[in-house]
Design brief:
It contains 6 helices and 12 strands. By secondary structure, the protein is an alpha+beta fold. The strands form 4 sheets. It has a 4-stranded mixed β-sheet. The protein has a 4-stranded antiparallel β-sheet with strand order 5-4-3-12, covered by helices on one side. The model has no long low-confidence stretch (mean pLDDT 94).
Length: 221
């Protein structure tokens, strides 16, 4: 059962499997697949990990989110339109459980530079405002905050993926409750809300790194 004011986290992999987004490894060239699934990419290196860094759906992510773990010799891609998937799932759950305030996040995991370990991220969300904006407010000493925004969607995803696990747990769903700090909304995210999550590479805090390499144009929008 689901209650008012909860968020359902769903692993991107399980959504992709339901949508048939799995390709046998012997049926496709991985480098071609990376170019197909990314907006921008760097060719795979001969480094220890042999990954390609990509910008996919406005996120810096290794290998365009293509997953080989728990895949039985398949490449599992991200859902084709992950935002539409999140919206559709939320609407279905609202109708099934007769709820007004319900959120959905579709999760994956990624790495952090210079630190071991993966952390959950939200690749799509629906049903709540994803950011808490502190810009223009004062800290406890009266200093006006200039840049701070709390990414609620990613914070929830990090907690959910920690519980769902990264190995053989077979737990692709997580229900998160007691969320008094979330502002729910009974509509799909607007184009303006989705745009508010994006920072252009040249304006990003990490611009010296993001703009210093020769990105190749991928095929994804």
């Amino acid at each position: 059962q689901l209650e008012e004011g909860t968020v359902v986290a769903i692993a991107a992999k399980i959504v992709s499997l339901c949508e048939g987004r799995a390709i046998p490894m012997d049926a496709v060239d991985k480098d071609e697949l990376i170019a197909q699934e990314s907006s921008w990419y760097l060719p795979r290196t001969s480094s220890r990990y042999n990954v390609s860094f990509t910008i996919t759906r406005n996120m810096l992510i290794p290998t365009a989110g293509i997953d080989e773990s728990n895949a039985n010799d398949h490449y599992i891609l991200w859902p084709k339109d992950v935002q539409e998937s999140a919206n559709r799932i939320r609407k279905h759950l609202q109708e099934k459980y007769k709820l007004k305030n319900l959120g959905v996040i579709i999760t994956d995991s990624t790495t952090r530079p210079m630190q071991w370990g993966t952390t959950g991220i939200a690749v799509a969300f629906s049903g709540f405002k994803p950011l808490k904006d502190y810009i223009g407010t004062d800290d406890i000493f009266g200093r006006t905050m200039q840049f701070q925004k709390s990414n609620i969607a990613n914070g929830l995803a990090a907690a959910a993926v920690l519980l769902m696990g990264e190995g053989s747990e077979q737990t692709p769903l997580c229900v998160i409750s007691d969320l008094s700090f979330i502002e729910f909304q009974d509509n799909d995210p607007t184009a303006a809300e989705l745009e508010s999550l994006i920072i252009a590479p040249e304006d990003d805090l990490y611009a010296p790194f993001l703009t210093a390499v020769d990105w190749q144009k991928g095929q994804a929008s």
